[in-house]
């Protein structure tokens, strides 16, 4: 069995007001309560429960505010709090382990994360420099037809991100630098694809290749072996972005408790 992989949890706040926080009494999204606990507690709890995960580093502009959350102190494992920058890419670049050691990256609003999802992703990502967890639309809609996601259309399916990434340490720095220039368009699928070049955009528009082939080609631009890891659980791509997401997430937690 390989050594546990360190995890980075992106728990910062984006610029501007967050409608999720209106009337909540909390000042940052990571501490918004869902199903009885702060979002961040659910995510760190899932990571700490996975035997595949080692040290957990929580990145936020004001990490001391998150470190004061009492429920986090009750979780097992080695949890570190680190102040981050304003952007996702620059914060990740500063927190990467030395050399090419792999790291797992997820987000504080990935509240439905489970150890089984972590295991499925890391197993599928093992032979890559960069791996991205994604869910195909039919997998999600088969169980949650009311869920609304941002979809990328490729040959063989429509895909949505599942907020898990595996990066081979500092080999990923060129990709993170590139992402820093386009992350403001992260919810605009075609703009993201177009940023990798006209041939990738044309191939996506004409559905000339699968998303696995598209990600592999995008990785080659940076000399990286990149891959998509398809997730078998639709819940993997349901994060807490909008009030309607929280309603669905609360329902899923209730169903988990009932079972």
Question: Would you mind describing this structure in some detail?
Answer:
- The mean pLDDT is 86.
- The protein is 37% helix and 22% strand.
- It has helices at 39-49, 63-67, 70-73, 88-95, 115-125, 137-141, 173-182, 189-195, 198-205, 211-220, 243-258; strands at residues 5-10, 33-34, 37-38, 53-60, 79-83, 102-107, 130-136, 152-154, 157-168, 226-230.
- The chain has a single domain (5-258), classed as Spore Coat Polysaccharide Biosynthesis Protein SpsA, Chain A, CATH 3.90.550.
- Strands 1, 4, 5, 6, 7, 8, 9 and 10 form an eight-stranded mixed sheet that branches. The protein has a two-stranded antiparallel ribbon with strand order 2-3.
- It is globular, with a radius of gyration of 18 Å.
- It has eleven helices and ten strands.
- The chain has 259 residues and is α/β, with parallel strands linked by helices.
- Helix 8 crosses helix 9.
Instruction: Give the ordered list of helices and strands.
Output: EEEHEHHEHEHEHEEHHHHEH
| Total of DSSP H or I helical runs spanning 4+ residues | 11
Q: How much of the polypeptide forms β-strand, as a percent range?
A: 15-25%
Largest sheet entry: 8 strands, mixed
Keywords: Magnesium, Membrane, Transmembrane, Transmembrane helix
GO molecular function, one term: nucleotidyltransferase activity
InterPro entries: MobA-like_NTP_Trfase (IPR025877), Nucleotide-diphossugar_trans (IPR029044)
Transmembrane segments: 39-60, 189-209
């Amino acid at each position: 069995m390989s050594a546990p992989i360190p995890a980075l949890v992106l728990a910062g706040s984006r610029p501007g007001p967050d409608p999720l926080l209106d009337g909540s009494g909390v000042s940052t999204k990571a501490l918004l309560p869902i199903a009885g606990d702060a979002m961040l507690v659910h995510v760190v709890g899932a990571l700490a429960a996975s035997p595949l995960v080692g040290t957990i580093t929580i990145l936020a502009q004001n990490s001391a505010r998150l470190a004061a959350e009492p429920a986090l102190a009750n979780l097992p494992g080695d949890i570190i709090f680190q102040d981050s920058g304003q952007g996702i890419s620059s914060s990740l670049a500063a927190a990467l382990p030395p050399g090419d050691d792999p790291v797992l990256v997820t987000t504080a609003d990935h509240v439905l994360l489970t150890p089984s999802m972590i295991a499925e992703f890391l197993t599928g990502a093992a032979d890559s420099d960069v791996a991205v967890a994604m869910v195909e639309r039919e997998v999600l809609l088969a169980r949650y037809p009311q869920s609304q996601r941002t979809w990328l259309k490729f040959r063989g399916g429509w895909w949505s991100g599942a907020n898990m990434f595996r990066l081979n340490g500092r080999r990923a720095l060129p990709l993170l630098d590139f992402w820093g220039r386009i992350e403001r368009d992260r919810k605009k699928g075609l703009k993201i694809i177009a940023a990798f070049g006209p041939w990738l955009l044309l191939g996506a528009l004409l559905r000339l290749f699968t998303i696995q082939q598209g990600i592999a080609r995008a990785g080659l631009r940076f000399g990286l072996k990149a891959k998509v890891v398809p997730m078998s659980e639709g819940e993997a791509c349901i994060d807490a972005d909008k009030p309607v997401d929280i309603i669905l997430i609360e329902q899923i937690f209730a169903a988990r408790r009932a079972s």
